[in-house]
Amino acid sequence: MNSVRNINYKFHRKINIKCGKYELNLGTRTFIMGILNITPDSFSDGGEFNDVDAAIKHALDMVKEGVDIIDVGGESTRPGAVEVDADEEIRRVLPVVKRLVKEVDLPISVDTYKSKVAEEVLKAGAHIINDVWGLQSDPDIATVAAKYDVPVIVMHNQKGIEYKKDILEEICDFFKKSIDIALKAGVKKENIILDPGIGFGKTPKQNMIVMSRLGELNDLGYPILLGTSRKSMIGKILDLPPKERVEGTVATTVMGIVQGVDIVRVHDIKENLRAAKVTDAIVRGL
């Protein structure tokens, strides 16, 4: 019985990350990040929460279900999605962020890779920047994060699905470059979180390889966020549409926690939180 805990608990380093007045005590348990898409074309819930009131209601529903962080996105990053400029992204997310910081007593993250958007939402009170291009699309975003002294989630991404070396080796190389950008810009080491980018620049098979080897990312020494919720990898396995992939998502949540993941980014809060609590009790001894 203790062998499972001994193998896996070592992955979960205790790191306290400050998010304004909030603190994430990573390593003590798994934190749940809830997805709030303010977009017309997201793959799973596009258009459902475009209205500010609808977005706030959904956020409050997630709070009732036990979410720890709310992640607001104003541009769909699914394959084939239409890019939007910074001004349009700001128009979508800023009103929501302004209300969330007043009405929700939790850290607010914004999913953006644009420094102009980051500046506006952080000025409005957001606490975390979640960059799907790992600070490498617009490196100025690292300078903005350093200015406001906020955590940054650095996701692995690339154009195309070709890997010349071992896929985990290339992901780690990408992260080392992103970490270098962050540190040189003045981002504190303790404010960096890594996301392997499941569903981005990878085939379903490659995603499964990364999922099976998540533990290798712990060698980099940073907390890990996992975002698999309702993604096509799960759809390919189950042959089900996005909203029927809850159980598949839960399976990946459990697998991630066992391999050292600290935060899971999900649509379905209640189900993933329950699974995380059980997994934490076994893996972390809670």
From TrEMBL:
It comes from the Bacteria. GO terms for molecular function: dihydropteroate synthase activity; metal ion binding. InterPro entries: DHP_synth-like (IPR045031), DHP_synth_dom (IPR006390), Dihydropteroate_synth-like_sf (IPR011005), Pterin-binding_dom (IPR000489). Residues 30-277 form the Pterin-binding domain. The keyword Transferase applies. Its EC number is 2.5.1.15. This is Dihydropteroate synthase.
